[in-house]
Amino acid sequence: MKAPARFYNNPRLSPDGKRLAVWIVAGARCEVAICELSLETWTRLTFDWDNHAPLWSPDGNRVIFGSVRGGSNQLFSKPADGGGSEEQLTRDRTYPWAQSSFPDGKMLAFQETGLDTGWDIWLLPLEGDRTPAIFLQTAANEGLPAFSPDGRFLACVSDETGLNEVYVQSYPGPGGKWQLSTEGGTEPVWAADGRELFYREGDRMMAVEITTEPAFSAAKPSLVFQGAYERGAIYSRDYDVTPDGRRFLMLRSSEPEAAATEIQFVTNWFEELKRRVPAGRDR
Asked: 117, 238, 116, 142: which is closest to 189 by C-alpha?
């Protein structure tokens, strides 16, 4: 895919894989734009204020994003086709960052920083009184929550050991908690079928096979590919996975303007993976 060299962040593919929402730094402002991938056409979704960190609703009809207005950053929602009015989802929060929607679209997991607790994970009901509730808050940093496709588990990143690692725990709990990464990890993403979880370990993309029946279990992480792709600020995610789990959408610095980024699909990794993994592995 060809895209103008701009300052791209937080790329998110729509649930059907046909559109891309991305946060673009444009001069002194930030905007959210959507690309129709088959046509490679771009349309701005936001026009005022500073807007960032888009997240698709599970049905692909709306985009949730953060927006700084009047000195306060809050979460908003807008129809993905640009029609209709925006809806404000949070008020009086401290820089909330939407990360994952529950599969039925009725709950949103977001992260924000606490005075004494660093990054914490919160849940926002999108029906009823919409009062946020804490899900995970400790003395460590916790962020990048990601609901599993069946809604039974939540992946996240925590530095409770002194190093960022990827964990999965039962949702809504109580239940088990499992560490998936072994040498540091961040930016977890579930495969659409829930049978794998991807994460980044430095410039390495890793995959973990997941089994949930009769109980949760995770295989040893395996290398998918390695490359010098852009990585976001701490506790942000700068890549995505296509719905079929076979391609990765990555950001790479362009030349000669190294600060700008290009959008690239990493392809053919599945054939390489088959050569590295025993033939008995079932995907």
From this structure: 238
Split into its structural domains, the chain has a count of 1
Among candidate residues 243, 266, 263, 242, the one with its CA nearest the CA of residue 42: 263
Asked whether residue 282 is domain-assigned, the answer is no
Q: What is the CA radius of gyration of the chain?
A: 18
Q: For every one of its 283 residues, what pLDDT tens digit does the chain have, with 9 covering 90 and above?
A: 667 778 999 999 999 999 999 999 877 789 999 999 999 999 999 988 899 999 999 999 999 999 999 889 999 999 999 988 899 999 999 899 999 999 999 999 999 998 889 999 999 999 988 999 999 999 999 999 999 999 999 999 999 999 999 999 999 988 899 999 999 999 999 999 999 999 999 999 999 999 999 999 999 999 999 999 998 777 899 999 999 989 999 998 876 554 567 777 775 544 544 444 444 444 3
Domain-located, residue 1? no
Nearest-angstrom CA–CA distance, 210 and 195: 5
Straight-line distance from the first to the last Cα atom of the chain, in angstroms, rounded to the nearest whole number: 26
Print the domain residue range for 239: 7-276
Rounded to two decimals, the pTM is 0.89
Residue 117 belongs to a domain with what CATH number?
Answer: 2.120.10.30
Q: Is residue 283 part of a domain?
A: no
In a domain, 181, yes or no: yes
- In angstroms, rounded to a whole number, what is the distance separating the alpha carbons of residues 143 and 122? 9
